[in-house]
Amino acid sequence: MEHAIFEALHGSLSPEAHTRVNSELALKQLELETDFSLAIINVALSGHADISIRQAAIVQLRGYVGRHWSIGSAKYEPGPIPDQQLKSQVREKAFSLLVNDNRKLCSVAAAVVASMAKYDWPDEWPQLFLQLVELLHSSSKSHTHSAMCVFSEWVSSDMSEQHMEQIGILLPELLRIFVSTGKYELNTRAMAVRVFSDCIEIISNMSSAQKTFADAHAPPILKEWMKPILDVFKQPIANDNGSGSIIQLKSECIKSVVKAAEGFPKYMLPFNASILEALWMQLQDIQEPFVHAFVYEDSEHSESATNMLVYCDEGGSTYSVDSYLLGIFEWLAKAAEIKSMRKFFIASAENNAGTIAPTPFFGQLVSVLMSYAQITSEMLNDWVDDMDLFVADEDEEGYRFNVRVSVQELIQTFDMLFSRPLAIALGDAARERTELAAQWRQNQNNSWWLVSEAMLWAVGLAAESIVDRFENGTIGGQLDIGALFESDVWPLAQSASFPFGQGRAFVFASSFAKILPSNIASVLVDASCNAVSNSELHPAVRLSAVRATSNFCAYLSEDITRAHQAGFINGLATIIPQLSEDSAHIALDALHSALQVDQGITASLEPVISQMAMGIWQKYPGDVLLTSIVIDIVEDMAGNSHASEAFTRHALPIIGAAITQGTDGMVVSSAIDLLAGLVKGGPSPMPEGYTDAIFPSLMQVLSTSSDSEVLQSGQSCLKYFVQKDAERICRWHDSHGVTGIGLIVRFVSVMLSPDSSESAALFIGDLVVKIVQKCSALISGDILTELVRVVTDRLATARTASFCSSLIPLYAQLSLCHPAEVASLLGNMSFRGQSGLQVVLSAWFKNYMDVQGYYNRKISAIALTRLFTLGDPRISDFVVQGDLIPNAVNKGKIVTRSMSRIHPDQYTQIPAAAKIVKLLLAEVDMDVESLFARASGAGLGAAVDDLELDGDEDWEDDGYSEENGYDGGTAVDKYSYLSDLIDGGVDFEERDDDDDDEDVLSDPIYNQDLNEALGSFMRQVVQGNQGDFHETIAPLLTEKEASLLDKLCTVS
Questions:
Q1: What is the mean pLDDT of residues 944-957?
Q2: What are residue 909's DSSP bridge partners?
């Protein structure tokens, strides 16, 4: 066996592919032998085998442990599982490898031991933990390192709150190793800090269930660790021994500080100022070497800087200062959110009492961040080789995380927390960096453009808030955008030798499109449009111009952009065919923006637009992002009265063919989504013949498909058909006389059958609601009754909250106008021993908080008030689940699945009327600040303050105002944002699918203030003693519910 394994391992390392594949297959077959694990560990221990063979044996054994060691493994594959006697021998031999003199063997052996521990400790390998702790005390640095390797994998992947005894033993050992600067190697000490970070995370995870334990143990642990961690931060990168691995230790230390800040912000407060001071010194010290090592590759200091900031160990692993910087920037973002740390970032302006300005430190920090944000040589080389990477890195949510992206997130955090001081700091830093770039440009230093580009990039991150301040007149002298155009934008825009800098000039200018003088805006729009069309320009310039023109079309007046709209769209037609799937989205976004400028010009270019949009979809029909943008374009073109007919004539055959002839479910689903866009954007009623042309084919596909994506897309598409053309759908019939609405109801019945997947029917509720809204007057009562019966029958057996909550709006919609009739209809139905009314109420109450959508939440709440007001005994006397009864057995414990099965949660049983009141009080409580902020009169502040709202005092905003400082503010000021949100005053880009549903928008309930309506309802219930409130409902309210109700009754 051992010889066969040796030969197979040797072959698996062969450079010849055929030999390698056959050997790997042979190893797979050998794994099915009972004694494979013992034989392969013997190969690993063999002193005669080459080190590569021994290492490969250990790696193979690790895979074997995952596949065959335990049936409980997520990677388990059928085959014999070693018996306990055999396992014991293998474990002992694997552990012996930890004390091998070869570091590579020790490292992979550590991974094997950790894998075995996952399944065997503590029941079958109880001595392992203490054996490893003993190994930590070994006089051999190598043995200690091996034990640390095991703990590094074991603690992070398999230990939890249930292992606090072991963590308590381990933490002092980790600290001992960490602070023993001369005894252990830096990478061993770094590993000790990494395991400490994992322990901190475990302790913080248990703080919610066992807060007392965490509160008692976290402070002393952090106090012990923070001082040596600070000492590490204060050490220079280039240490005396020249090993360079101090980078690894520093990186692990900053990661541990970040985890501690996340898990125990309160207990980290005493250390934050010292941490900030140490990290600030590090940022300044590393700044110059960083740019020489990673940005200015031709610098005479480049080699020495690289040697300082990049380290390769003997095992081939590379450690760069990047990971350390990423941790510093992440910690700074968290620090800025803490009240007690804001004094380091912002202060009252000296010349304007009460106005907030940046501190000197904050101003210097922003300047340093601009330096770190410069494009590195590696990024430039990547972009030159692959423009898709350039597009991805320039996207706001790119997939590559590096120092520049980390700086981006930090500046955006500053912008969110205190935009005015940031604008001032950006202005000061911009002047400093502009002077440096101008000096370098004058001295013919070709790196000048990197300085200018990074500065414009950083300022552009805060463009939205800066533009807002310009528009409302509060920008003052914080930032001179005009000066930046003269000093940096124009020079970059004219520098064809530096295409990525030239592109930045376009993008930066477009970010401030709203506030550009019309003469400058016209020049920039003209230049951008020309760049898009000019095939001789560098692709980076053209793609940047595409982004810029998209912004110009969105934010500049039509008077400026109209003259360039046709040229821009035609320019896009030349560039889109050249773009890959990963880059085409920016051109489609730009096209979508351009369509909005002038509908007449858009209509005149319909052939070009339809060819671009449908062409890119046909090329990449499975790309979700591209399809979503094409759908937006389709909707817009369908809604353009001048272009709709022609666009439909071009697009519908392509869509129809994909639906009826497609064999790939994803493509068919995508095509149905495009059809939904055509219908949704088009007129109502739809043009004559439209329904006849596509509706039958759609129903045929839906009736035969079993693909969940196809069925979900079909449900949404049918909803728009019903919304736009209900009358024609009801009139249309097939060759068998079945009407269109009859086919839809039949489809609904199939989707709600017990055999159908709940996920596949996730949007069937929206379709049924739309039928009720649009077809109630067009179809018979029997059809509506059948719909209600089918939905209720499926609701009775529904399992997932998402599916149940998707069906609830049907009953809410019906109950709004006809609550008594709905109660009677459901009350006369029977499903598995329950009335339909009981089925619906049980599901409604259980999933009330899971109902999705601004409008659906409103009608759900209002409908419950209508049902309560009925006073129907079938509702008021129905007993349902109430409040959770405290479980004394599980109190203060971390409840596992087995414990919850043995001692399941118990609930009170209460009448449905009381449940309705409780749910509606919970609804009010979710928006309690908004409710009371809208009320006026004495005692308002106290009413808000008296309520017990969750929050961490160390992270709260204590009335901070950028204009007036920490003025405390009134309750109305504090909560005006939430008030706007509830009133619909805040315009989120995509708040809800209801936003463009005409039926929803025309419903008075949509614009009704829900909290005020519920407050009024509660007062009527209490004052009128409806439902015997005082006798049967009030005693069942919790203290918090009763307190909230009292305050509701006092607000007029």
A1: 42
A2: 881
The DSSP letter of residue 376 is P
Neighbouring CB atoms inside 10 A of 659's CB total 26
Helix (H, G, I), strand (E, B) or coil at 31: coil
Q: Minimal CA–CA distance to 752: which of 786, 775, 781?
A: 786
Which helix (H) or strand (E) is 910 found in, with range?
strand 906-911
Dist. CA 298–CA 138, nearest whole Å: 48
Instruction: Quote the tokens at residue 867.
Output: 């049902």
Residue 279 has pLDDT above 80, yes or no: yes
- Cα–Cα distance for residue pair 897/179, rounded to 1 Å: 40
The mean pLDDT of 7-36, rounded to a whole number, is 93
Compute the average pLDDT of residues 687-713.
Answer: 91
What amino acid occupies position 499? P
DSSP string, 68-123: HS-TT-TT--SSPPPPHHHHHHHHHHHHHGGG-S-HHHHHHHHHHHHHHHHHHTTT
3-state SS track over 193-208: HHHHHHHHHHHHHCCC
The full DSSP string for 799-810 is: --HHHHHHHHHH
Question: Looking up tokens 């979503």, which residue turns up?
Answer: 628
- Write down the pLDDT at residue 1: 87
**C-alpha–C-alpha distance, residues 452 and 649, integer Å:** 49
Tokens at residue 1034, please?
Answer: 């009030």
Helix, strand and coil in the chain, % to nearest 5: 70, 5, 25
Contact yes or no for 295/377 (Cβ under 8 A): yes
Mean pLDDT of 268-280: 96
Cα angle 68-72-73, degrees, rounded to a multiple of 5: 55
Q: Place 989 in a pLDDT band, splitting at 50, 70 and 90.
A: very low
The Cα–Cα gap between 344 and 366 comes to 13
Residue 942: pLDDT band by 50, 70, 90 thresholds? very low
Helical (H) or strand (E) element with 677: helix 665-681
- 476 Cβ neighbours under 8 A, 6+ residues apart: none
Q: Is the confidence at residue 84, as pLDDT, over 70?
A: yes
In this structure, the number of other CB atoms found within 10 A of the CB of residue 456 comes to 25
Do 401 and 335 touch, CB atoms closer than 8 A? no
Contact assessment for residue 150 and residue 110, using Cβ atoms and an 8 Å cutoff: yes
Q: What 3-state class would DSSP assign to 484? A: helix
Provide the pLDDT for residue 926. 83
Helix and strand totals (H; E) in the chain: 54, 10
User: Which tens digit of pLDDT belongs to each residue from 404-414?
Assistant: 999 999 999 99
Nearest Cα to Cα of residue 456 among 429, 474, 495, 476:
429
- The pLDDT of residue 307: 83
Beta carbons within 8 Å of 412's beta carbon, 6+ residues apart: 461, 462
Contact 954, 266 (CB under 8 A): yes
Whether residue 978 is predicted with pLDDT greater than 80 in this model: the reply is: no
- Write out the two tokens for 571: 């320019």
Q: What is the C-alpha radius of gyration for the chain, rounded to an integer number of angstroms? A: 34
pLDDT above 70 (res 398)? no
Cβ atoms < 10 Å from Cβ of 316: 7
Global pTM value? 0.84
**By C-alpha distance, which of 974, 917, 926 is closest to 947?**
926
Answer positive or negative: Cα dihedral of 540, 542, 547, 551: positive
The residue type of 901 is R
- pLDDT, greater one: 493 or 905: 493
Q: What is the mean pLDDT of residues 491-496?
A: 92
DSSP-assigned letter for residue 487 = I
pLDDT in tens, 415-463: 999 999 999 999 999 999 999 999 999 999 999 999 999 999 999 999 9
Residue in the structure block whose two tokens are 């308590």: 168
- Nearest to 500, CA basis, from 457, 549, 550: 457
> Is the backbone peptide bond immediately before 621 cis, with ω within 30 degrees of 0?
no
Task: Give the list of residues 6+ apart from residue 36 with CB closer than 8 angstroms, or none.
Answer: 1, 5, 30, 64, 68
